[in-house]
């Protein structure tokens, strides 16, 4: 554990101040009745601790509401918890030592779901500590939970509405199934789990019945599906060839002839192969199959002949429907061969720990039967379960679907109206995903989830779709408990009766993504608050929450669920690799907060490319730089003000004609304009970065050049208070600290309004930029001549003749020269007279003496106006006594001789 820094301790005190004085609540009550800025917060699971991947979007989701609140909007912010689904179920399975779905059923659904409910918020306490510690304001005490009855009821309402619109249907389709979870997954869930793996592909031999020793060659990357083969597919328009080679005649697409040995003895049109019969490799279910034509067959890879197993592929299943082919499902939902497959019964077809082992056994079987033509290793992208990491298998099964294809065009039109940051995601990553949208499999054959609200009669010919608890009570055959648990198995026990006929609930539960996609209407039963003005999440949610939100909202209300989206990238370890608990390749979040403080972390994140969906390699060096260049620098400015202003009354309204004061006003006007523009366009990096530049200018130019001007203190105070308001959304702790130390007018800076627009004086900004540029060139000339700045010089000549007198005086002071002369005929931009006269050397020595005494005062911890004695060094006695009055006047000391 890192020791808490002074910054972190100060932030914790401010956190307590906010809590004790209910500042967040006051910002909401202050804006009540004003126009609402609608914001949805995507619900996380509380089964793990918050990490950087949560803090990044969380900070984005804090900056914008804080800003909008200061702009006069009412911005309620309510936390939510995702409670259902495979993430929780997998956790409980592991803890209980349950290996399969059947194990859960033996254990008892009621007990299993009870354990799930109890574990849902196991880390709620830690979340409630860390989220506020990062400076985020959101109501976590009244969080919505997707497992609450009120939330479930809203989900039921949406399902019934969609069902009545004809957008819900039940169907038997080929989908991806997780053998461990024993449930099908939606296409966007599948898309989240692809990994590159090495698999085994085989080219198998299928002997033609009417031509012994003549074989059709079919290539497959899933050898385990071969026992379910019922047909072979060819393309009628492709030309095929017969090759003569050791052991017989082989048929493949002619275009692929270069891949196979032997010589061509005959060419055949694909259509002439249709109808031919062959011997099946496995005879567990049937002894022969037939060749059929199919347009999806290509001669670009494999053999140009596809093995058809209708239970394990979408094209296969559709072909089987077209030609009424036998449907053989030789693998169960647990991913094991059924008992009929006698040689491999009970074997996992794609084991998680060794996905090749079963394919190897199949290959050995083929080789033993002389039906293996070739085998090879291939590297391809293969889908794995997004929760348990088990390899998925294609599997035909029943599911409830939302007819996304019917509303796809409307979804795409709605997306076109949404503003995305970064902009290219709208028509790029997200837009392309929408173009390929398929019907959404919204049901899961699982236990802990929102129950699908469909009750069917005995033969399934009639249904009652329930939209509320009231409807449930209306048709229930017994009086229902007012505290009825709407989860399985209790809801399964509710029997409905209509016209004397009993109806029982289907066993499926909702995809947990349907739960989170229901946030707009389920978390706040106010449909008028759709769409949200703003949402933000990570790039992966283009395949998740962003998608389910827009699909459900379009289907239900005809419009998008949101107007504005900010998409963040991934936070990676410093070496660019994924952050890993196992590798411990990143610092603990709590240690970072204790060492650098939340403001440094917030600014580091929102000023980075990560707020534009780019990845960020997390670096403590970046945090350290922010502490040094922003936090410490600003702290020094505030400390200077406190030191020299003392207890003098704050003169906030003092006007001044000094060019530095005019410049800092113009500089703040530019800051306010840049930050506001960035925030209004939801470009947080563009909004936050100017703050660092302004603090640098305030510290290294305005304050440094104004140190000897006591009359600048009121202007400095006003500037710091205005800066605190600008910083408030980004660095809420430091903004509060500065505001309170300078006695801002309200209880908290976060109760202030956003600074009003001020006209930017571009002329003075340009002139000051030129002044600083010329000064920098002249300082380079000094450095080149190896003459320190404390050594006065006689003259600096500059070519620029447009700068006014007050700017030339600044250059004169900055360069420590007696005069600045303008000469537009000068051969270069600046020319420094480096001649050192005895008088100049004497003056330089005097400045060194003054600087040495000032350094000594700082080391002694003396206050600015405190007059003390200073013993004159014996070796410099004559010089000090000669300049006694000047030294004493400049340093507030009384010189005394030893």
Automatic annotation (TrEMBL):
Q: Carries keyword Disulfide bond?
A: no
Reaction equations catalysed: tRNA(Ile) + L-isoleucine + ATP = L-isoleucyl-tRNA(Ile) + AMP + diphosphate
According to its UniProt entry, one GO biological process term is: isoleucyl-tRNA aminoacylation
Q: Which PROSITE patterns match?
A: AA_TRNA_LIGASE_I
Q: Give the highest taxon in the source lineage.
A: Bacteria
The entry's protein name is Isoleucine--tRNA ligase
Q: Does the keyword rRNA-binding apply?
A: no
Organism in which the protein naturally occurs = Candidatus Zambryskibacteria bacterium RIFCSPLOWO2_02_FULL_44_12b
Q: Where is the Aminoacyl-tRNA synthetase class Ia domain?
A: 13-616
- What is the enzyme's class at the highest EC level? ligase
The Methionyl/Valyl/Leucyl/Isoleucyl-tRNA synthetase anticodon-binding domain sits at: 661-794
Q: Where in the cell is it found?
A: Cytoplasm
Q: What does the protein in this record do? A: Catalyzes the attachment of isoleucine to tRNA(Ile). As IleRS can inadvertently accommodate and process structurally similar amino acids such as valine, to avoid such errors it has two additional distinct tRNA(Ile)-dependent editing activities. One activity is designated as 'pretransfer' editing and involves the hydrolysis of activated Val-AMP. The other activity is designated 'posttransfer' editing and involves deacylation of mischarged Val-tRNA(Ile).
Q: Which family does it belong to?
A: Belongs to the class-I aminoacyl-tRNA synthetase family. IleS type 2 subfamily.
Gene Ontology CC annotation, any one: cytoplasm
**Under the GO molecular function aspect, what terms does this record hold?**
aminoacyl-tRNA deacylase activity; ATP binding; isoleucine-tRNA ligase activity; metal ion binding; tRNA binding
């Amino acid at each position: 554990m890192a020791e808490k820094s002074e910054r972190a301790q100060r932030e914790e005190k401010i956190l307590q101040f906010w809590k004790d004085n209910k500042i967040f609540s006051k910002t909401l009550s202050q804006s009540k009745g004003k126009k609402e800025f609608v914001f949805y917060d995507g619900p996380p699971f509380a089964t793990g601790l918050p990490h950087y991947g949560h803090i990044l979007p969380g900070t984005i989701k804090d900056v914008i509401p804080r800003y909008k609140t200061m702009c006069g909007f009412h911005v309620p912010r309510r936390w939510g918890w995702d409670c259902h689904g495979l993430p929780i179920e997998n956790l409980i399975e592991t803890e209980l030592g349950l290996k399969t779905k059947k194990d859960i059923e033996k254990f008892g659904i009621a007990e299993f779901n009870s354990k799930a409910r109890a574990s849902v918020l196991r880390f709620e306490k830690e979340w409630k500590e860390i989220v506020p510690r990062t400076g985020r304001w959101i109501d976590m005490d009244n969080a919505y939970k997707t497992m609450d009855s009120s939330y479930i009821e809203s989900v039921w309402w949406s399902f019934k509405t969609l069902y009545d619109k004809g957008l819900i249907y039940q169907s038997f389709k080929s989908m991806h199934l997780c053998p461990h979870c024993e449930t099908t997954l939606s296409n966007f869930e599948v898309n989240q789990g692809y990994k590159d793996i090495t698999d085994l592909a085989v080219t198998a031999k299928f002997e033609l019945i009417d031509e012994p020793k003549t074989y059709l060659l079919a290539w497959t990357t899933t050898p385990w599906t071969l026992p379910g083969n019922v047909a072979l597919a060819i393309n009628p328009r492709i030309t095929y060839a017969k090759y003569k080679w050791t052991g017989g005649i082989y048929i493949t697409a002619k275009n692929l002839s270069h891949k196979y040995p032997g010589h061509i003895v005959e060419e055949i049109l694909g259509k002439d192969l249709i109808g031919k019969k062959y011997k099946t490799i496995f005879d567990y279910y049937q002894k022969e199959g037939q060749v059929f034509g199919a347009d999806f067959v290509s001669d670009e890879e494999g053999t140009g002949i596809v093995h058809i197993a209708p239970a394990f592929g979408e094209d296969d299943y559709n072909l089987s429907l077209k030609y009424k082919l036998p449907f053989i499902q030789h693998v169960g939902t647990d991913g094991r061969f059924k008992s009929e497959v006698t040689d491999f019964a009970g074997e996992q077809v794609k084991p998680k720990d060794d996905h090749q082992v079963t394919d190897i056994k199949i290959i050995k079987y083929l080789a033993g039967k002389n039906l293996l033509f070739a085998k090879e290793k291939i590297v391809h992208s293969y889908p794995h379960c997004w929760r348990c990491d088990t390899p998925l298998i294609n599997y035909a099964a029943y599911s409830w679907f939302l007819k996304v294809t019917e509303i796809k065009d409307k979804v795409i039109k709605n997306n076109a109206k949404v503003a995305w940051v970064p902009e290219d995601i709208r028509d790029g990553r997200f837009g392309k995903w929408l173009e390929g949208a398929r019907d959404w499999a919204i049901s899961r054959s699982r236990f802990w989830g929102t129950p699908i609200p469909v009750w069917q009669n005995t033969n399934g010919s009639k249904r009652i779709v329930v939209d509320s608890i009231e409807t449930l009570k209306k048709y229930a055959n017994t009086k229902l408990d007012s505290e009825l648990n709407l989860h399985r198995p209790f809801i399964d026990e509710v029997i409905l009766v209509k016209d004397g006929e009993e109806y029982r609930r289907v066993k499926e539960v909702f995809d947990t993504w349907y739960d989170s996609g229901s946030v707009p209407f389920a978390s706040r039963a106010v449909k008028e608050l759709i769409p949200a003005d703003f949402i933000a999440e990570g790039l992966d949610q283009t395949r998740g929450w962003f998608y389910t939100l827009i699909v459900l909202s379009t289907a239900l209300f005809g419009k998008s669920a949101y107007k504005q989206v900010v998409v963040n990238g991934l936070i990676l370890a410093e070496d660019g690799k994924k952050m890993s608990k196992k590798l411990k390749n990143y610092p603990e979040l709590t240690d970072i907060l204790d060492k650098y403080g939340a403001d440094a972390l917030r600014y580091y994140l929102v000023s980075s490319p990560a707020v534009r969906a780019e990845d960020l390699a997390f670096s403590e060096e970046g945090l350290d730089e922010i502490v040094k260049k922003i936090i410490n620098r600003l702290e020094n400015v505030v400390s200077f003000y406190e030191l020299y202003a003392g207890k003098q009354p704050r003169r906030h309204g003092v006007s001044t004609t000094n060019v530095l004061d005019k410049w800092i006003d113009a500089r703040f006007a530019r800051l306010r304009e840049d930050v506001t523009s960035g925030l209004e366009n939801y470009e947080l990096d563009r909004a936050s970065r100017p703050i660092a530049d302004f603090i640098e200018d305030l510290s290294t130019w305005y304050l440094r050049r104004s140190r000897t001007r006591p009359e600048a203190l009121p202007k400095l105070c006003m500037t710091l208070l205005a800066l605190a308001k600008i910083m408030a959304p980004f660095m809420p702790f430091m903004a509060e600290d500065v505001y309170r130390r300078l006695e801002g007018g309200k209880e908290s800076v976060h109760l202030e309004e956003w600074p009003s627009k001020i006209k930017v004086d571009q002329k003075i900004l340009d002139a000051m930029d030129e002044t600083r540029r010329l000064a920098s060139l002249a300082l380079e000339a000094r450095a080149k001549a190896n003459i320190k700045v404390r050594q006065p010089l006689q003259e600096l000549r500059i070519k620029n003749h447009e700068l006014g007198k007050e700017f030339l005086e600044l250059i004169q002071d900055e360069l420590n020269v007696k005069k600045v002369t303008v000469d537009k005929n000068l051969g270069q931009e600046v020319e420094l007279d480096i001649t050192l006269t005895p008088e100049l050397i004497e003056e330089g020595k005097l400045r060194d003496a003054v600087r040495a005494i000032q350094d000594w005062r700082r080391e002694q911890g003396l206050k600015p106006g405190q007059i003390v004695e200073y013993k004159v060094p014996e070796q410099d006695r004559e010089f000090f006594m000669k300049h006694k009055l000047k030294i004493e006047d400049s340093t507030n000391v009384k010189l005394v001789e030893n």
